[in-house]
């Protein structure tokens, strides 16, 4: 026969168990929240950055900018997105606060901006400048992120296009599309320490997570050059689709994803063999590409620059296991109008704005409350 004290003890234990389950689910929900993708667009009347929730592949919000939103980079903390004005008439960089999804600063870099990269510490932003009447196209502006001001510049090469940091932040790799080289720059001395000949008309560039390789898109020869950073020499050239336009390396370094704007597809390169292992059809005229921190999804900005149908301006979402498009993000009410760039932030962690915390699908806080309620009901039977 169960005594009154035993019944009371069982109810107390049940409540403790339910609360413990609830707290675990809340913590897991916060720690495992999905990141956001930021897609740049030249817009209709003005540029914009579209914020996509990668957990649901739905549009979260639209951030307007006063110009053509072109290349973008996000800081390691995921708190700031830096966007170039690619209109060819402006020398500005837009700084977006991801907590409020608003532009909180505009930085004049002294020349028409092209590429942008944030150092691993998040303390500096490096911006390549296009050749123009106000600039010779050979320089990189350095922005102090604490003040949002240009503090220095580096003279690099001939018609520099884009840049990428080594994972340790000690080197910068810059593409020079006029002389078909990449420049290797020492961040401390701001001096070029090596020049590597690659393919025809190099544009975009990415480094492997371990820093041992640099991948360079050669848009003139439809290839990707693989550079060994220990010897600063090309060790492989991989043929991809027509008009390679952007490149991203998976977080584990096993695969490299290349958008091909003339072929309307994505080439997947096996990093160990330097061979294309898959070709994935996407939308029209794909440009930007980025990968989620867990490596499970690839986001591709389809600019559809030759299409008159605004619905073709969208984002393809690729499952990296099946190498197939599993979702297409359209903005419905809003028009992306030539989306070109995409960056993805880190997974949302505790301490970030609560509006950015997304529960594990079907569970999280609501799931915890349901569990607690059901346990209580079962104990009453």
UniProtKB/TrEMBL annotation:
A Pfam family that the UniProt record links to this protein: PD40
Domain of life according to the entry: Archaea
Keyword Amino-acid biosynthesis: no
Presence of keyword Membrane: yes
Protein name (Swiss-Prot/TrEMBL): YNCE-like beta-propeller domain-containing protein
Keywords: Membrane, Signal, Transmembrane, Transmembrane helix
Domain YNCE-like beta-propeller residue range list: 212-309
Listed transmembrane segments: 12-38
